Q: What sequence folds into this?
């Protein structure tokens, strides 16, 4: 199955919705709300908003934030003139609860792209590749080969064994699914997981991976801010050239 972006933009079929998940507690940021932390003059989550707003493949966007950040998020959406944002809603106790809250506000879409708001280095190429790959089996995730040697250790820190890394991948976002598959996964699986692809896997669906980027890091600590500023500056230079 080949992805045809012109279909989504004319409003007739294959409508694409995007959920930006930005409702985390930022516990490793030393009290900072990382989602609205300024990075090169723009709040962190603003990068995902701008890329998805500018994407010709995306029709509707829902921004999911912490309950106390609704007004701040709404002001940011207005300031960036993100006309595709159909709702700003509060997140839930778990990440998957936050995604499910956003999913409920996208009733008319056939595809759903889930983006982590703490990954500002998303690109238009990733959005398109995510949709193209999801068209094969109905589910796709960004992934990069694991560089480090991975060892399993016991409770005392003793090495139990070393895991061959050739087939290991670090998973990123965007993650894209048919709306039907994602809705079913959130309805039928209640296990706590760290990403939506795991819910889909637990139902027996095949999730396909596509090449992510080592620059597509998730901001989790204050030290990550300086790194992501360097990465974003590099991306800007690539776009200009």
A:
């Amino acid at each position: 199955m080949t992805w045809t972006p012109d279909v989504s933009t004319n409003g007739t079929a294959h409508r694409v919705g995007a959920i930006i998940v930005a409702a985390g507690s930022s516990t490793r940021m030393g009290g900072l709300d990382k989602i609205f932390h300024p990075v090169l003059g723009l709040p962190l989550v603003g990068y995902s908003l701008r890329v998805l707003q500018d994407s010709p493949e995306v029709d509707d966007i829902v921004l999911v934030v912490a309950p106390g950040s609704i007004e701040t998020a709404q002001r940011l959406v207005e300031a960036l003139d993100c006309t595709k944002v159909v709702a700003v809603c509060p997140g839930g106790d778990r990440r998957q609860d936050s995604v499910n809250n956003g999913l409920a506000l996208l009733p008319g879409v056939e595809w759903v792209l889930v983006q982590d708001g703490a990954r500002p280095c998303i690109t238009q190429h990733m959005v398109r590749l995510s949709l193209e790959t999801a068209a094969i089996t109905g589910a796709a995730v960004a992934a990069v080969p694991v560089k480090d040697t991975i060892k399993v250790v016991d409770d005392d820190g003793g090495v139990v064994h070393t895991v061959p890394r050739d087939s290991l991948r670090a998973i990123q976002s965007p993650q894209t699914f048919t709306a039907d598959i994602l809705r079913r996964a959130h309805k039928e699986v209640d296990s706590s997981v760290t990403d939506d692809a795991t819910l889909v896997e637990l139902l027996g669906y095949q999730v396909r991976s596509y090449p992510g980027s080592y620059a597509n890091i998730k901001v989790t600590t204050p030290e990550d801010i300086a790194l992501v500023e360097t990465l974003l500056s590099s991306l800007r230079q690539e776009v200009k050239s």
Summary: The CA atoms of residues 52 and 234 lie 20 Å apart.
